[in-house]
Amino acid sequence: MHSIGWTLIVKRGCFCSKEKLNINGSRYTVRERLAQGGFSLIDLAVNAATRRSYAIKRITCHSIEDQNIALREIENCRKIDSEHVIRVVDYELKGQADIVINTTNTLFIVLPYYKHGSLSDHLQLRARKQDHMPEAQILQIFLGVCEGLRAIHEAKPVPLAHRDLKTANICLSDSFEPIIVDLGSMTEARLQICGQSDAQRLQDEAEERSSIVYRAPELFTVKTYCTIDERTDIWSRLRAVCHVLL
Question: In what order do the strands lie in the sheet containing 53-61?
Answer without folding.
Answer: 20-23, 26-36, 40-47, 53-61, 103-112, 90-98
